[in-house]
Amino acid sequence: MKIIKESQVRDGLTQVTYKNGLVLSIGSSDTHYSAKRFGIPLTIEVAVFDQHGEFIPLSEGDDVAQIDIAQFEHLTEKMERLADIGADEAAKELYHWAEY
Predict the structure, then answer these.
(1) At what angle do helices 69-82 and 87-94 cross, to 10 degrees?
(2) What is the 3-state secondary structure (H, E, C) of the chain?
(3) Longest alpha-carbon distance in the chain
(4) How far apart are CA 30 and CA 68, in angstroms?
(5) What distances in angstroms separate CA 8 from CA 16, 27, 100, one per listed residue?
(6) pLDDT digits (tens, 9 = 90+) for 24-52
(7) Is the pLDDT confidence value at 99 over 80?
(8) What pLDDT shows up at residue 78?
(9) Burial letters for 38-70: b for 16+ Cβ neighbours within 10 Å, e otherwise?
(10) pLDDT, tens digit, for every residue of 79-98?
(11) Burial of 82 (0-12, 13-18, 19+ CB in 10 A)
């Protein structure tokens, strides 16, 4: 199993921990970079933390990224593929990910 823990930290914020220690944080509340229509998220805010709880910058300008649902699917697939390699190596693959 590539995911070892999934938890709802608070309303609108879920964190998923992968077996290599990386954590994907997914925010969809009004306090996040999240656009909604009729109460349904069109975009969400994501952040990735390394095994020490430090942000992996997803862009040059910010540690978090606002992405649409299709990009979110791509990111989660990448996180699952990277779960089988070491956290440091995986972090390099995610560094500035939102810019590509």
Answers:
(1) 150
(2) CCEEEEEEEECCEEEEEECCCCEEEEECCCCCCCCEECCEECEEEEEEECCCCCECCCCCCCCCEEEEHHHHHHHHHHHHHHCCCCHHHHHHHHCCHHHC
(3) 40
(4) 16
(5) 9, 10, 28
(6) 999 988 778 787 788 777 888 999 999 99
(7) no
(8) 93
(9) eeebebbbbbbbbbeeeebbbeeeeebbbbeee
(10) 999 999 999 999 999 999 88
(11) buried
Which contacts qualify for 51-56: CB closer than 8 Å, 24 or more apart? 51/20, 51/21, 51/22, 51/87, 53/23, 56/22, 56/91, 56/94, 56/95
Per-residue model confidence (pLDDT) at position 71? 92
Q: How many residues are present in the chain?
A: 100
